[in-house]
Amino acid sequence: MLGDIPAHHSDRKTIDFSSASELLARKVFPGAVIIDGMKSNSSSEGLKALSEIVELRRSVQFCYSPIYISRTMQQLDMLVDGVTSDIEDRLNEADAILEKGSRIKEEWLLDNHNLRLLTYMYVRGEEYELPPICSPFSPWVYSYPEAALLVDSSLDLSKMLKAEDLSGLERLRSFRFDKEMVLALKIVGFLEDNGYIRRSVLSDRIRKCPKCKTGHLNYLDLCPNCGSIDFQKKTMIHCFVCGHVAPDTDFRRNMSFVCPKCGSVLRHLGSDYDHPLESHECNDCGSKFIEPDVKAECLFCKTRTVPEDLIVNNIYSFRLTEKGVAAVRTGNMQMELQLFDGQNNLILNYFCTMIEWFREYRKRYPEQVFSLLGIRFSNLYEVQYALGDGAYKKMMDEMVARIRSMVRTTDMTTSSAPDTFWMLLPMTPLNKSKIIAERIEALNKMIETKTDHKIRITAKCFEIPSLSEGVTARDLLEAFSETL
Amino acid sequence: MEIYFGSFIAEHLYPLLEAGTWPFLLKFMPFVLFFELPLSLLVVMGVIKYSVARNAEGERRPYFPPVSCIITCYSEGKDIQQTIRSLAEQIYPGKIEILAMIDGAAKNVGTYDAAMQMLEYVSAFENRKLIVVPKWQRGGRVSSLNTGLNFSCGEIIMALDGDTSFDNNMVERVTRHFEDPGVSAVAGCLRVKNSEESLVAALQAIEYFVSIQSSKTGLSSFGMVNNISGAFGVFRKSILDLVGGWDAGTAEDLDMTLRIKNYFGRYREKISIVFDPEAIGHTEVPVTLRGFFRQRLRWDGDLSFLYFRKHRPSFKPQLLGWPNFLMIMFAGLFSQIVMPFVIFVYLIWLFVKFPIGYSATMLVIVYFFYLILLFFMYLIFVGLLSERPKEDMSRLCFLPIMPLFSFAARMNSLIATVWEITAGGHKDTAMAPWWVTKKSKF
Description:
The complex is a heterodimer. Chain A is of the alpha+beta class. The relative contact order of chain A is 0.09. Chain A is 34% helix and 22% strand. In chain A, the strands form seven sheets. In chain A, strands 8, 9, 13, 14 and 15 form a five-stranded antiparallel sheet that branches. In chain A, strands 20-21-19-22 form a four-stranded antiparallel sheet, sandwiched between helices. In chain A, helix 2 runs parallel beside helix 7, helix 4 crosses helix 10 (322-330) and helix 12 crosses helix 13 (389-406). Chain B is of the alpha/beta class. Chain B folds into two domains: 6-54 and 329-439, no CATH class; 64-310, Spore Coat Polysaccharide Biosynthesis Protein SpsA, Chain A, CATH 3.90.550. Helices cover 55% and strands 13% of the residues of chain B. Chain B contains 16 helices and eight strands. Chain B has an eight-stranded mixed sheet with strand order 3-2-1-4-7-6-8-5, sandwiched between helices. Chains A and B meet through strand 12 of A and helix 2 and strand 5 of B.
């Protein structure tokens, strides 16, 4: 139980803590958590509960744990597993989650949002669906708040709690989560693209501004000539006597229609005149047109877009795939960044086997030197978020092409994390491979982005120590990657 | 149901044929002088009077009261769309509420659907509103009008037929008269929509022009309008409330006129009925002679029913005022009901007493007398009144047939009167189902 006033006395199963920080500090896990929201009527109490949830979900230990709140707190309810004040009510459910979670190794989840989300989904059972939630006042409109909670970002909780400028409900409603929500969309998109999760139910379809990607659009009818919204409908009259066609205003003479060309009085629709068409006249540029243009104007960036060019977003809920389940069970995800491909790009296990083979080989033939090149990209998500998918992909393609041109593509490669890549360089002493590493790191100077975030490439060479019996190649890679 | 003054034509002078020579002509001249020529003269003078007043008419003052148009629909089908369209299309800045009353909508689904299709069309107009009221069970025209009256919000109520369409200045022309608080009703002018379809239709177009557009204009100048057409009558709502709406039974239009006229006499207030020849509705007429006779048989039967049975107590000058009393006596009773009998008897007598060649010659002389009279009146009316002079002049070639056509109509009217008096034929009407007319207290 988390809360200022312990609702229950501690017993065998339940322990009370005053805050999430205390819980984390005392290292009591794994376990199910109930956040006591007794004073939830005040918005500061709601925000406090929110900050507790965020803190727990950010931690490796509680990122997938069952978390409940003791009473409903409107918007917060969807972020937790349910509302209950007594864990006994949810014991089966919580136990099932913890049971599944017991197979997960904590270290797999370090710095890996993707795997955290997959794990979060996995432990909640096969029937679990990650639901999209509509937040009408937000720029993104639809996102996955449960995924957003798992994102470890620079969100300043203390700043959020101090925000006194907003009234209570509004403060809760906004969550101040924009960046995380957008990142959650990217993560979900990435996991879907790579087959870890699959679409389940199509729940909505929205259209977004192609420039700023927000979903608040205003559909306007406009003058096709000058784009003004100030135009009026003109009813046209066709005089049967002389065939003259003009707007009805040209025909109005006091309380009757008189043809301006032939002077006939047009009395009866159908026998003296008819309306061949409806037309419009712009009050700004004076142009005449039949159909006004229709464009969607973004309420944020004011960009006007023809409806066909809007980004159509289908909003789905998601389920874990077989591949996703396998990733959670092994703690291993294939790389998202395809730095290397082709026949020589091996899965990690096989790559480790190859290292071990080379090590044995070198024992017998010491002149057969080889070295290992590690490359790591940092800030990938942040840059991807800042640049947008298109620009990001373009930049990464360029970078990948340059790196590939520097190395021999016949060398064996693998990836141990989405941002970490390895290359086995046979017949290459450490000093030679260092030159390659330097060249790769030199790329950092060429990377220029307009945003604050910058992708950083770290490249290092390693020599495999020979006298390390019992130390597996996997252990070595993990140790090396710490230094990258 | 129209009373055709202009087409007095041949019938009244048939007694002249008895003589066949100048002394005889002179003998019957008083008949002409007392009845036929004075009436024609009155109408011509009235038309001239109107025409002068019309030319002096100033700018329209900004008086645009809300108008409710009650359209009584039965099985018109798509035709009512033209009616609704022509009302929505009115050049009138005020509000126009269009109430399409679909009588027997359960049976007349086509008409109901046609009206419903117009909802979107009308909604595009400013200040126009269409309300479609399905009366699933058939209840007759009067029940449609009274139901519509309940739904209506306008100060001015129009009772209109589902197959009549209107000129785009109709509402504007009609409403201007109501600025005078003494005007209680305006009779609209009907023209024939399908005059091109047959000779009979073209002859009726001439008849409508002479006996409605021209004669009523003339009479209206002297405050003697004697009927408000059922297909096109406009009332001040307060007056309708005063007389309690329309009465069940047939010929509710003439009935309403007589009841309003009763108020003229009873209260001695200056309440008047105006006819405007420029407030024009276009209606379909029967295209065959047979259809024409059947229609007139029904109308004229209804007419004598009203005079003889329902309104007999109303025929007092104290009630109607003297001019109207005389007008109704003369135009209604005498020319429409008594004259056909007189003419018929004289004609039989003529052919019995004189040789056939002699009788025939006399008929030809009388024919030409009426043709010339009609010809000059027609030219005057077209010159002074017609808003479509070209169209009306194009029918000049049919004028020679008109005396014969009118005579045939008059004989048809005689049959109707006999039928009504002897058999109570007014209940045999197409205006309301038998179970309504049977229950009617009249």
